Amino acid sequence: MMPFLDPPDHTRVRRSVSSFFVPRAVQHLRAFATQLIDRLLDQVEAAGGGDLLGDFARQIPIAVMCEMLGGVATDDQERCCAWSDALVEASQPVTDDAMLARADAAADEFRAYFGHIIESRRPDRPTT
Fold it and tell me: Which of 2, 21, 31, 103 has the most CB atoms around its CB within 10 Å?
């Protein structure tokens, strides 16, 4: 997790994500987030109400991050939410072995999932 990295790792990771925060990218995300929020509110309204956290607020950051990263299927976003929840839980001031085990498993699954996406996007390397 980037906030816990020290230079030079923090600098390397920060440089790799900086393109996500240029004005053009942020404008795209603003439009995406607006459509997402409208859709989620429509769903809550159609259901006659709902859980503001579970049906609405929890979904927004993961959906936006998945949009930023690209290649994340909408169906996989709930898995990303669960992995994220496990990692956040383990960053609390008081943790136990079960929480840490869930966070370790979530980190491994995140790494495998996004590792596959990254590998699928790598250009073919010339053979030597």
Answer: 103
Buried-state track 64-81, b at ≥16 Cβ within 10 A, e below 16: eebebeeebeeeebebbb
Q: Of 112, 105, 44, 35, nearest to 74 (Cα)?
A: 35
Domain boundaries, the chain: 1-70, 73-128
The pairs formed by 85-94 with CB atoms below 8 angstroms and a separation of 24 or more are 87/1, 91/1
Please state the pTM of the whole predicted model: 0.69
Q: What is the pLDDT of residues 69-92, one digit of tens each?
A: 886 888 898 899 899 999 999 989
Distance CA 91, CA 76 (A): 23
Between CA 15 and CA 21 the distance in angstroms is: 11
